[in-house]
Amino acid sequence: MKFYTFKRDALAHKAVWQNLRFLAGKGYYLVGNRPKPTTMYDSIDVKQIPANAQAVAGYVGGFWPTYKTLALEFPSAKLLSIAVNARQDAECLDVEQGDARPDQAAAWVKRQKGLGVKTPVVYCSVSQAGLLLRTLAKAGISRADVRLWTAHYTFKPHLCSSSCGFGDIKADATQWTDRALGRNLDQSLCSPGFFA
């Protein structure tokens, strides 16, 4: 444990998840557990999702509306609702071929914010993330106004960043496999603040 003589020095090193404490004769110190990433599963076949899932995502409409079933079958899990088109209301918009288009995302994000979704999620392939974020920025929606969930099937858990080779992006969650646990199951790694 590191002690600081001055409060200002301790505060200069404080992370969001830490609390400042003082011990007489020693000084100021920081405590707290670093938040851990969350594993999230999604599938069009709800039976593929493990019973102990930390988090689950499901569609509110389209061909496979799974969200209501997930809410009933996984009451302890963190839930993420997904809209497959810009007419639907949810926490996340699926922006990919056959679903919503990048040019529809800005109006959708603004509508969801108006409905009380603090930080809507936009989902897209990592190769399309730069385009999507630029499209949102042109409409006055900053990166901080959305959570970015990328799809990048490396079959290794990761959060997409510039090291993935698709520009200067930083994903809040990454769907890294569509064969989790040897099943027809998508698995994503979500940053510690994704569900905050």
Give the tags.
8-stranded mixed barrel; about 20% helix; alpha/beta; about 200 residues; 10 strands; two-stranded antiparallel sheet
**Rg result:** 19 Å
End-to-end distance, in Å? 28 Å
Percentage of β-strand residues: 25-35%
Mean pLDDT: 95
Number of helical regions: 4
Please state the structural category: alpha/beta
> What does the main sheet amount to?
8 strands, mixed, barrel
Helix/strand order, N-terminal first: HEEEEHEEHEHEEE
Helical proportion? 10-25%
User: How many strands?
Assistant: 10
Question: Per the principal axes of the C-alpha atoms, what is the gross shape?
Answer: globular
Please list the strands of the largest sheet in the order they lie side by side.
Answer: 3-4-5-6-7-8-9-10
Uncertain regions spanning at least 5 consecutive residues: none
In short:
With 196 residues, this protein is an alpha/beta fold. Helix content is 20%, strand content 25%.
Question: What can you tell me about this protein's structure?
Answer:
The chain is α/β, with parallel strands linked by helices. Helix content is 20%, strand content 25%. The protein has four helices and ten strands. The strands form two sheets. Strands 3-4-5-6-7-8-9-10 form an eight-stranded mixed beta barrel. A two-stranded antiparallel sheet has the order 1-2. The two termini are 28 Å apart.
What layout of secondary structure does this protein have?
Blueprint (H helix, E strand, L loop, with lengths): L6 H6 L6 E5 L3 E5 L6 E5 L12 E5 L7 H7 L4 E6 L8 E3 L7 H13 L6 E5 H13 L8 E5 L21 E5 L8 E5 L6
Parallel strand pairs: 3-4, 4-5, 5-6, 6-7, 7-8, 8-9
Antiparallel strand pairs: 1-2, 3-10, 9-10
